[in-house]
Amino acid sequence: MSKKVKLTRPELKKYRDALQRFQRYLPMLKLKQQQLQVTIRDVNKQRQEARDAVETARKKFDVYGYVLPDTAGVDLQTLATPNDVDTTWANVAGVRIPVFAGVEFPPPSYSLFSTPAWVDRTLVDLQEVNRRQAEVDVFDLQYRILQKELTKIVQRVNLFEKVMIPNCTNAIRVIRIALGDEMTAAVGRAKIAKGKLSEEGNSEDGNCVYDGTETETETETAESSTQ
After folding, report:
1. Of 90, 135, 164, 165, which is most buried by a Cβ count within 10 Å?
2. Above 90 in pLDDT, residue 215?
3. Residue 185 maps to a domain
4. Which letter does DSSP use for residue 80 in this model?
5. Is pTM beyond 0.85 here?
6. What is the average per-residue pLDDT within 143-163?
């Protein structure tokens, strides 16, 4: 144990109460750990699916590579970059995580009649790539938040199982042994003291000395015998 244990009954009660708290709280920590592990697996699976969707969208967009230099003055990259990524919040095992809800792109600022038709299709496909990537980014954030929380929970579980509970159990054992020895010693001292008192009492009873004084009954008996 890291600190010296006081061998007293109040200290024993303190460690017993602490042990009960740790043993009551540990199952809840383990349950939360399991919930986080399951959620992380699900998020990781969804994240991989979202990454696959990004690759599919990019392959679809790659066919426009040969016409991108001629976009009729339209800045496709700017128009395909989200102005905002909409998210909601969910609670998973007591942890708030963002949930992807969609993206907002800037409105088209070019004439639909004075530009080639492929420009519109290219913009839509490039926006799809960026939308899919934004979804991946949210999944990445979910994963980091959950993984960080899981690390904290695992550390607490290990602390309770390997440090706090063993320390309390050992302290209780040490205090109980010390109190038991103290009680045994007290009983022994009490028996010794009782024995001494008994010996002193017997000694006083056996040391009676005759002082030569006759009682009235003894005198009368002596006179009667004389007569």
Report:
1. 135
2. no
3. no
4. T
5. no
6. 96
CATH code at position 131: 1.10.287.3240
Give Cα separations from 141 to 32, 68, 144, 159, 198 (angstroms): 20, 32, 5, 27, 83
Is residue 61 assigned to a domain?
A: yes
Long-range Cβ contacts of 144-151 (<8 Å, 24+ apart): 145/95, 145/96, 145/97, 146/36, 146/39, 146/40, 146/43, 146/92, 146/95, 146/97, 147/40, 149/36, 149/93, 149/95, 150/33, 150/36, 150/37, 150/40
Domain range for 97 is: 9-174
Lookup result for tokens 């990781």: 44
In b/e form, how buried is each residue of 141-158, taking b as 16+ CB within 10 angstroms?
ebbebbeebbeebeebee
Asked if 175 and 8 touch (Cβ cutoff 8 Å), the reply is yes
- pLDDT of 62 over the 70 cut: yes
Token code pair at residue 24:
């009551």
* SS3 assignment, position 184: helix
Q: pLDDT over 90 for what percent of the chain? A: 55
The answer to whether 93 and 36 have CB atoms below 8 angstroms apart is: yes
Say how many C-beta atoms besides its own lie within 10 A of residue 135's C-beta: 22
At residue 76, the pLDDT reads: 83
Collapse the DSSP code of 11 into the 3-class scheme (helix H, G, I; strand E, B; otherwise coil) and give the result. Answer: helix
